[in-house]
Request: fold
Amino acid sequence: MTKPTQNITADTARPPPARIDTANVADLITRMRAGERRAIAAAITELERLSAAAPALLQALQPHLGHALVVGFTGPPGAGKSTLVNAIIANMRQQGRTVGVIAVDPSSPISGGAILGDRIRMTAALDDDGVFVRSLASRGHLGGLSPAAVRIIDALDGAGFDIVLLETVGTGQSEIDVAEVADIRVVISAPGMGDDIRTVKSGLLEIADVMVVNKGDRPGAEQAMQQLLGALSIRATISEKVPVLKTSALNGDGIAELVKTLDVIGARVSAEPAIARRRRRARYLIARAAADLVAARIKAGGKSSLDPLADSVLSGIMTPDQAATRVLEG
Ligand SMILES: Nc1nc2c(ncn2[C@@H]2O[C@H](COP(=O)(O)OP(=O)(O)OP(=O)(O)O)[C@@H](O)[C@H]2O)c(=O)[nH]1
Ligand SMILES: [Mg+2]
Reply:
């Protein structure tokens, strides 16, 4: 039995109803930009759900987009990403900068879901209008970065935050996604977890603009630094540009230097037109949606629907690429 194919486009065909007054999107944006938290939360929710209000909201936000720099943080579970993000928030707030935070898939077995929220509360940042934190699950995209995160970036950018910090657990796909979505990519490892080795192996080095060895207060931090520097040195082109920093998110060591490094890279990134950065994120959304559509189309056709193409591939009449093109053409 095959499923009806109209399900494939159900999401876009029937968006969930808006929870905001769609006639008053301009008013919502005015309130967002005045820092009204409820307005920011409402806008995020509409964009996250891709509700019926999302297109109008996005269009009305356009003149306000492109200001925020997006810094992505990835690395193995427990490396200290949330703690580090929290330390960076504190540093940037002291400088008077406003910070939006998106924690994707924070539900790793090590931290549980609420840890970032807990930490923020601990530093009293929750009472601070200059910080806005949103957590979201990575919803079905195995280890990947939820496309909703990209839309939330727009909401936070539109609300006028200077910087958006995006935390995601390094699980393979997600660091590739972070590379596509963030303007600056920070790869975090920590000593004593074998992470330095894993980081090298998993291709995280290739996407990093900054490498951080966190838990610098722990034994083995220096050794982890040396291992990373060694791994970077055999990639000559990378070693020329990727700083490796040691931090202790717990006691604050190295945080100021990390923020300065982000600023240097940020100045470079800001020199390119904002539209280029925003286009990169849109390209990611399109690529993800295309992959999802093809997967849904194959699934909707039923297991055996590919058999004629499979037979052609088996007999050498078609290459797998040609068969895939046929699937794409519908
Ligand atoms: N000693 C030491 N411990 C740290 C440091 N930074 C974080 N930790 C601890 O490491 C543990 C994990 O920290 P998190 O910030 O939750 O790590 P994470 O990378 O966000 O973890 P996931 O979100 O689960 O992937 C916590 O117990 C932190 O207190 C540090 O600089 N030094
Ligand atoms: Mg975390």
